[in-house]
Amino acid sequence: AAKEAGKGKYMIFDPSFLQAFNERVQLEKYLRQGLQNEEFLLYYQPQLSLKTGRIIGFESLIRWNSPELGFVSPLTFIKVAEDSRLIIPIGDWVILQACMFAKRLQDQGHGHYKIAVNISVIQLIQDNFVDKVMESLEITGLEPELLELEITESTIVESFDQLIPNLSFLRSKGIQIALDDFGTGYSSLGYLKQMPITTLKIDKTFIEHVPNDDDNRSLARAIVLIGRKMGLKVVAEGVETARQMQYVKRAKCDVIQGYLISKPLPEKEAIRLIRSNPVYDIGGKTSALQHP
Ligand code: C2E
Ligand code: MG
Ligand code: MG
Ligand code: MG
């Protein structure tokens, strides 16, 4: 051990840095393979209207089952995909798959559901991004109003000027635009007003901190208010308890998403869920959520 420590003094590279670097290179290689070998798939998490108690749409969430690594969380690989620009072909694939899913629901007679798709800024600033989105809509025949692109608030602020033309164009075509993880990105209200967005998604950290009493000074409530004042639809993500649902409902939040309703589901299970045509009990103050 003493010898090791002595050696360490003269090392140029921190071995843990080198290891992290190698892991990244490996991960990138596997991602590239994964794309070729179709190792990705989409899961769909239902979104519930707090007005009707019905499921009105889904958020698509990518999953990767790598033969070498097993299931890898998007929290791990999206960053690497962005840095290597692999997020562009991966993201193109996601958009088309998500549109196909929503259209399939219609074609199979399940109804018209909105589909939300997470978009990285790397994708959004490409010149041909809007063409590719429009192409996915044309190929599938999905109504643009049923497609919602989610962009995280923290990244939108960094490249604001570059993003606005593409966002405005997509918005002008009827596509919905959501600001994801809202409340974590420090965008000023001035910025918010200039953005061509339709939806605010309150980050789940604020829902976690929904107070146990009826404290109306909570940040969650303030954020819903901001959204409503700006005429936006407000979605609460990460709703896990009936109490949290009641709280955001009283704050006049429009839509909830979270484990209380369902975790993200593979397509078959998502279809099974909507086929049962569930109406959730979002009523009275004390009522717990009742699954049909
Ligand atoms: P996000 O867009 O904010 O998605 C919500 C995350 O919260 C998802 O994690 C979801 O599974 C999780 N979640 C949902 N309900 C609950 C709940 O009640 N409690 C808790 N604790 N968590 C809940 P997931 O699927 O691991 O995705 C993580 C992030 O990876 C996403 O955050 C999104 O930023 C990114 N991501 C996922 N799919 C894609 C994709 O296709 N493209 C891009 N660019 N990013 C993606
Ligand atoms: Mg999202
Ligand atoms: Mg989110
Ligand atoms: Mg989030």
UniProtKB/TrEMBL annotation:
The keyword Membrane applies. It comes from the Bacteria. Residues 24-278 form the EAL domain. Keywords: Coiled coil, Membrane, Transmembrane, Transmembrane helix. The keyword Hydrolase does not apply. This is Diguanylate cyclase. It comes from Paenibacillus vini. The chain holds residues 897 to 1188 of 1189 of the full protein.
